[in-house]
Amino acid sequence: MKKTKVPRSYAAIIRRSFTTLLLTIGLVITLTVSVTLSVDQLFRAQNQAAQLSSNLQISQANTFQDWLTINRSSGLNAHNTFVVVKNSDGSTTSFLPSNRVPNLTNSWQVPFTHLIYIPKAGLYFSESLKMNHKTYLLYIGMHVLLGNLHVLIAVLIIAIGLSLLIGLLFVRRLANQISRPTIELARAAQQAAANPETTQPTLPQPTEPAEVGQLAKDFNQLLASQNGRLQRERQFISDASHELRTPIATIRGNIKLIDRHSAKHPEVIPESLGFIDQESLRMQHLIENLLHLSRADRAQDIDLVPIDVAKLAEGVVTHYQPLIEQPLNFHGPATPAMALGDTDLVHQILTALLDNAHKYSPNDQAITVTVAQKDDTVTLAVADFGRGISKADRQHIFERFYRVDSSRSNQVEGSGLGLAIVSQLVQLNQGHISVSDNHPQGTIFTVSLTAAPAKES
């Protein structure tokens, strides 16, 4: 069974990293100092061996007293230095600081060095010298080196241990200080996630560490966006319920009227059926608009292709003119106005704008559709001579169920979703829609689309 890896906290990660770093530094320092000290001692031993060899060449050591004299003149410790002389006749003479003769039989040489280890005697620096049919084997003890290394390693171990203890206490405090803002942020996020249907509170934003502060800032921006979306959804549901409640209540009221009074007053039947038909048609349009909005909200990637906006708009104007009383005028360039967009969506945008102009324009005032191209933008404008839209209302006209001049909302057909759908469709076409005043009165809706790149010849 595979063991599940438990996620580590900030404190655990920092403690482990710090411990590893400190141990690595301590090991590197120990090795560096040990190697440096060893090399220094080897050079000292080599210089002393050279001095001793030079003295032996000047004064031969035939007795132990001679050896002591030569050894003292070299500055060596007599207790850690001895010489073995191999005579020409094969005999061996040993000059030792004591009567004990080391056993050189089982000694072994350290590779690539003059160091030799003699069992029960220790580590020595060895050097050989041939002179007057004799071979002098010099052995200089490295006991001082080993003693210094032992002391050094002990001191470093104690120093590293104390540093590790103090460092872990410091790191624990530092880790808690660093992780506290993150933990508080996580707790606040959990509390916010526990109540997804309520307006999310602002998460605490620490000043340090800067990364956690930036993360909290990004979270708050995300929550603000989510709160706005949640508020719009609630308003949308409330407005949709309100818009649907009115025609349903009207239909039910007329059905009850027919049921109660049709026998004695049959004249109420045609009138009530007319109201039922009118309100059911209104409810049908509302549901269709809601479906359009739902599809637009779900749409993600739209394939934008080059389309001739002037030709498309002229065709829409030609087919729309018989449906309304206001005269329709079209102005467009003589050459194709190619823009990147979706043909069906642009057709729907223009139709919705013409519907809006038709509803709010006098029957004797013309509606003008204009297509123009400037630099890298193609504009599609619909201008009417209605009552116009105030600057305060312009900030809300693309919101769902918003109606300009609420006192006239019952006189003008519509659900307040048309311009919201237009705005959504324009965004899907990666365009922009703006509202401006017409002269002497009225409104101009202008849709800006990106011009299609010119084809290479």
TrEMBL record:
Keyword Transmembrane belongs to the record: yes
Q: Which SMART domains match?
A: HATPase_c, HisKA
Where are the bilayer-spanning segments?
A: 21-39, 149-171
Question: Where located?
Answer: Membrane
Q: Which UniProt keywords apply?
A: Kinase, Membrane, Phosphoprotein, Transferase, Transmembrane, Transmembrane helix, Two-component regulatory system
| PROSITE patterns referenced in this protein's UniProt entry, alphabetically | HAMP (PS50885), HIS_KIN (PS50109)
EC number(s) reported in the record? 2.7.13.3
Which residue positions does the secretion signal occupy?
none
Write out the ranges of the annotated region (Disordered): 189-209
Q: Which GO terms describe its molecular function?
A: phosphorelay sensor kinase activity
Highest taxon of source: Bacteria
Composition bias type Low complexity, residue spans: 189-202
PANTHER family linked to this entry: SENSOR HISTIDINE KINASE TRCS, SENSOR HISTIDINE KINASE YKOH
UniProt protein name: histidine kinase
Q: Which reaction does it catalyse?
A: ATP + protein L-histidine = ADP + protein N-phospho-L-histidine
Major location category of this protein: membrane
A GO cellular-component term linked to this record:
plasma membrane
> Do the record's keywords include Protease?
no
Which CDD domains does its entry note?
A: HATPase, HisKA
